[in-house]
Amino acid sequence: MSKLPDDHKFLDLSDYGRPMARIIANRLKKTTITPIHVTFGFLCSGVIAVACMYYSYNWYAAFFFILKSILDAADGELARIKDTPSYTGRYFDSLSDFVLNILIFVVLWHITNVEFGFAVLAFLGLQLQGTLYNYYYVILRNKFHGDVTSRIFESGTPVAMLGEHQRNVNVLFWWYRILYGSFDRVIYKLDGEAANGRHLPNWLMTAVSTFGLGFQLLIISVMLVLGWADYIIPFFIMYSLFIFLFIAIRKSL
Question: Which top CATH class is 11-252?
Answer without folding.
Answer: mainly alpha
